[in-house]
Amino acid sequence: MESGQLFHRGPMQEVATNSNVSSDRLNGILHRIAGIQNLEYFLEEAWHDDTSSVELVFHEPPSDFVFVIPDSAWVNLISAVDIEESEAAAAKQYHSARAQDLLVSSGQSHELPKDHSYLVVPIQDIEVWRRSRLVLSWWFQELAEDGLTPPEMLDYWMTEELGNAPKEWASQRDVHPEAVRKNVRQAREKLFE
Predict the structure, then answer these.
(1) Quick one: 170 and 182 in the same domain?
(2) For 106-135, what is the mean pLDDT?
(3) Is 71 part of a structural domain of the chain?
(4) For 122-171, what is each residue's pLDDT tens digit?
(5) Torsion sign, CA atoms 52, 58, 60, 63
(6) Is 155:180 a contact under the CB 8 Å cutoff?
(7) CA atoms lying within 13 Å on the CB side of residue 132
(8) Most buried pick, 88, 108, 147, 161, via CB within 10 A?
């Protein structure tokens, strides 16, 4: 994939060849869909909402995220970009082809549930992604140098920096909320003494 290009030409050409949508038009449609995709929403649905039928089936930054979403969510995305039915079908075919390429190349297999579709969410700015990961790693190194243990670092990050309630975060970690509170208290003492 060329620098600055979000969508892979192979699956795009394949879909364009088998539909009445040109690859240029399909590229434009895919960009419009990507413009309204909310990665944070889909990650939260996949990771934090036990009742959600959104599933994260592939992520290998700085590449793409592949979600399985209900067809109703796909229809909502498509209706927000106001495109013709044939264009919507071509976009859905691209997402399916790209998802299958990623899953096969990574050695993963996935059975697509009935009434669900693949949604590929590209990381739009790879350099920003890499820099943010680097900055985060530096921040964790500083916390370690200040004497925080790994559980203190994680609990401090998830509650104080990201704003998760200790009780909610404790349930994600499968620990008692007081264990999280204790780690955060100890982290504060080490950081602000």
Answers:
(1) yes
(2) 80
(3) yes
(4) 876 566 667 777 888 888 999 999 999 999 999 999 999 888 899 989 98
(5) negative
(6) yes
(7) 8
(8) 88
